[in-house]
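User: Hi! Is it possible to get a structure for several chains at once, not just one? Here's what I have:
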Amino acid sequence: METSVATAQPIEAPRVNYLNKEYGIKSWLLTKDHKRIALLYLGSVSLFFLLGGIYAMLIRLELLTPQGDLFQSNTYNKVFTQHGIIMVFFFLIPSIPAVLGNFLIPMMIGAKDLAFPRINLLSWYIYLVGGIFTLWALIAGGVDTGWTFYAPFSTTYSNSFVILAGIGIFINGFSSILTGLNFIVTVHTMRAPGMTWFRLPLFVWSLYATSLIFILGTPVLAITLLLLVFERLAHVGIFDPAFGGDPILFQHLFWFYSHPAVYIMVLPGMGVISELIANFSRKNIFGYTFVAFSSIAIAVFGFLVWGHHMFVSGQSVYAGMIFSFLSFAVAIPSAIKVFNWTATLYKGSISFDTPMLYALGFIGLFTIGGMTGLFLAALGLDVYLTDTYFVVAHFHYVMVGGTLLAYLGGLHYWWPKITGRMYPEGWARFAALVVFVGFNLTFFPQFIAGYMGMPRRYHVYAPEFQVLNVMSTAGASILGMGLLIPLIYLVWSMRYGRIAAANPWKLPGLEWRTSSPPPTENFEVTPVVTWEAYEFAPHEETKVVGKVERGDKPDLPAALQT
Amino acid sequence: MQSWIPFMPDKASTFADTVDGLYFYLVGLTAFFALLISFTIVFFVIKYRRRSATEIPRPIAGSLKLETLWSVIPFLIAMSIFVWGARAYFQQYHMPNDAMEIYVVGKQWMWKIQHPTGQREINELHIPAGRKIKLIMTTEDVIHDFFVPAFRTKADVVPGRYTTLWFEATKPGKYHLFCAEYCGTNHSAMGGWVYVMEPTEFDQWLAGGANQESPVAAGQKLFQSQGCTSCHGVNGEGGKGPPLVGVFGSQVKLEGGQTVTADEDYIHNSIRSPQSQIVEGFRQPLMPTYFKEQLTEEHLLQIMAFIKSLSPTRTQGAQTAAPATQNNKMTGTTSPEGQGAKSPDAQRSNPIGSTPPSKRLP
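Assistant: Yes, the chains can be modeled jointly so their relative placement is included. Here is the combined structure:
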């Protein structure tokens, strides 16, 4: 007991770490430290999430009644468009890669930083500039095209700020490309001695796969948006048949990026879940290679299924069949992951810390989200279900029930490493439960509304759908509360939380073998890896590394300053 | 009308059983797997909960047998869904050639519909039960989507081309018509009702608008008033321009050696952009391009109907579309009923939108 008290005392606190090494706004805005850049992303991504969340609440409020009582139709259309644009491009896509990935990839592979620290900072600035353009579009009057920007509505008929928003997303895309490039080069060239490919934590594998999509897919989105802006400005016939263009071409180009983008959003989440499931059951992941390669398979096959968004758009019946077949094929790697996660629990030592609660919730919700994807891949059924609320429910199960839960789980899991403080466990478990209940109440009724035939993007709707919409709105208010609780206690814990040990969860991963928070260079000595991923050696001592700070904090006990 | 399961949509077409069957198959599968995974997780989580802070379980490497099992079984299940779904899709999107053809034009934010006998409707569609109906659809502006939940089918309506949708209603009644592809401000108000009627009732309804001009007659008038006759001949026999008799559905040889099928899209394109596909031997670009501005999509559909009527053998569908039931022989498409109608010019300035709405169902 005595010894544990002694080690639990803030031994790590006075160390020089990446947070207290330098102070001042300049030290943040010009930082090249991947950990500080991750925090810059955390701040900006959270702000966008808050904004997107406000839009979501406005949508649910309006849909409480069948009539349009809160907004004009035009305003409602802008609200759901902006909810989509903000959440997809400025929250979901950057969230896990740019925050958790940025922070953890170098630490997990035993590197001091990413391969290109300056480019990393540049990515954040590009993200910011893209965000500012998009916010400008919102403030100037908004966009009403839907996040999908379908032509010729977006190119010719919409009277909103399509060009500004398009430019914002276009710019933001370069941030993704650079982040992806950085991750790929880092994983290839900067692994610590002994850190072989098959010793990499699965989070790194999933972000590697994500990065492949970033660099291969995002340029297509950039081209598409550029053509859209070009047509809107100069009336060159690309998409609008009135000028000699083809509106279906837009859909092909858009979904060629935006379907893989779905995997950009969910693959990192799967990576987080692999970490959580293995670590909180103190087991190596069941079927490591299958889980690792399923990420790559998803990234590759994800590029071949874009046409399943266009089964009713008038494309050939046979093209539809091929896209449908491939869509079923891409479901298999996801199924493999789910089964392997479940099998990992077998004969484990399972704890119920908050991150694990999120992970278990993820598996359940992702199973439903994934299986309802099969409804939409089934051609004859998709003809009926596409563009209804069934689709809305499906992708929210994947994006919110999947990605958001994984992000929250990951944030709690690595919070002690990031901030050096623990979050309050009781509140966190309570919030996880509230989120889970609120989420299901929000989105499950939408499956039913969808099968009843309620089309999406409807401002006013037929009265028979009201019961389900009231349930959905009630759920959304619970979900909203559930998300505000972590916002409050995480901010609180940054200052008042219990000080975290270097390895509060007692885990073997490299990121836990350095102090919390880590020093700027992550490891004092380059680690040599002699163990497999998730190898829980019973007696191995986790060594704390990091320089002891001298004379920086005079209010600390003298004994700790030497 | 309501099914015994709560929150189920009306069921009123021949597709409904297939789509619902596939749906319930998938609901069953999803429930099975979601419960299987959930129960397994709950079981493991309770059974293998951490009992002491220091325990380290023995690692388990994995199992190729299990991996194979849970790759192959889901794949086989997925293929069963694929085949079922593909068959339903083929049924939905493979157009029958004995259907009654109705023209639909989408426009922000209304549906304009014209029956082969000339009746026009806005945001309403009256059809007989037990008969195949084929919609030939296009739009004046953005993409729309014709969606009737009770029929379990929908199709996008795309500018610059024709899309088709067919169904056979099984049960008389009043069903929602929605626009399912986001199309701007009043997207959610762009819809109305489909009235499925008993065939005899439908005949009465059709007779109520008997002095309307049929699309073929209207198209013929446009053909004359727009000056098409000077090159294509009074009856489409050809002249300076290629002949139109028998063209629809045939293989047309183009300048440059290409061959195309003269379908709706080809004819539409040839009127809107005459220079894009030139028939072999007519290299001189004589045809004016101003039709793009002068003719609305509805006019084009009427001219199309006329041109199709010049190829009677290939277009049984269009012809059988008159107020016909099993015991009532159809009126020909060149019946004199169009003669009392308005002149094409008056008609052009007075498009479907301004004609009084047709009779509603009682």
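Residues 1-13, 539-562 of chain A have pLDDT under 50 and may be disordered. The CA atoms of residues 114 and 186 of chain A lie 6 Å apart.

User: Great, thank you!
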